[in-house]
Amino acid sequence: MRPDLLEILRCPVCKGELELSVAQRDGQEILRGSLACARCRVTYPIEDGIPDMLPPGERD
Amino acid sequence: MAQRLPPARTAPDGSPYPDRSTASFEREVRTMFTFIARHYERFNHLATFGQDFLWRARSLWELDRFRRVPIVRALDVGCGTGEFARAVATHYPSARVVATDLTLEMVRRARGAAPGGAGGERLQFGRASALRLPFADRSFDLVTNAFVLRNLSSLPAGLAEMRRVLRPGGVLLSLEVGEPSAAPIRAVFHAHFDHVVPLLGRAFGSEGPYRYLPESLRGLPDRPRLLAMHGEAGFSRHTARTQSLGVVTVYLAEAGAPSEESR
């Protein structure tokens, strides 16, 4: 994913805004990191460039 | 609290066979799509005699006749391997397209298949449930989904959620297989989905998924009812256009009237 997605990306649980932490990037593309909801504090991982926006209990 | 779920149903060959009547249906659908991800595109082209390319293209032409706003941002829900998202990005060369799927394996394949150069930078991917889209209200001018509605555990909830993320005047485009109205064509249609497709599925080691497919088609409301459900989900203008003798239907629904600045 790229940072411009944050304009519209929200927490699927409470629709709060997300704070991005980057662990690895390739130019604009964020390959690894996480998104934390500023409101309900749920964290969503980014792996291989893909944000996993399923609520924690539903991820597998 | 952890929910105790019954073991997921499987076909005689051990492949996943989702059961809509259980609480774990959404999880079973995800397991199934993970299972078939590898041959998903090839199978679809084969089972539809290559018609699926045409269906996607025609649905976008229909959209252009229906819409009253420019397509700047689009979302493809249940993107699978990304074929529809890529078609949308190609059709609207300045649109930014986001594609989501419930199955991580599908999203990985969709992202891997996106062109690295021209157009690729306009596509982004993520895993999400269609019933809990991770987007702000009124984010998109277009939400598409192809062959997704029949897999949703709640159709009214899915339609309402897709409506939520559309701007005023934005359009929901759903492409779905449905029962043809002419009796002789209907007989061929059912013979194909009930007998040919499961046989083809068995050849791919996926008996369960392709026994689930005809079941899922029967579970979908008929065309007038599905269209009425769009109205109940808060869409104003809506229409259904059939293709290939009624085998496929394109549903187009507008999320309220376009505002002055969105025209």
Characterize the structure shown.
Chain A starts with 17 loop residues before the first strand and ends in a 9-residue tail after the last strand. Chain A has one domain (3-49). Chain A has strands at residues 18-26, 29-37, 43-47, 50-51. The relative contact order of chain A is 0.25. Chain A is 0% helix and 42% strand. A four-stranded antiparallel sheet of chain A has the order 1-2-3-4, with no helix packed on it. With 60 residues, chain A is mainly β. Chain B has 263 residues and is of the alpha/beta class. Chain B has one domain: Vaccinia Virus protein VP39 (Rossmann fold), CATH 3.40.50. Chain B is 41% helix and 18% strand. In chain B, strands 3-2-1-4-5-7-6 form a seven-stranded mixed sheet, with helices on both faces. In chain B, helix 5 (104-113) links the parallel strand 2 (96-101) and strand 3. In chain B, helix 7 packs antiparallel against helix 8. The chains are: A mainly beta (60), B alpha/beta (263).
Topology summary:
The complex is a heterodimer of chains A (60) and B (263).
Chain A: E1 18-26, E2 29-37, E3 43-47, E4 50-51
Antiparallel strand pairs in A: 1-2, 2-3, 3-4
Chain B: H1 25-36, H2 40-47, H3 51-66, E1 73-77, H4 83-91, E2 96-101, H5 104-113, E3 123-127, E4 140-146, H6 155-164, E5 166-177, H7 183-203, H8 207-219, H9 223-232, E6 238-243, E7 248-254
Parallel strand pairs in B: 1-2, 1-4, 2-3, 4-5
Antiparallel strand pairs in B: 5-7, 6-7
Helix pairs in contact in B: 7-8
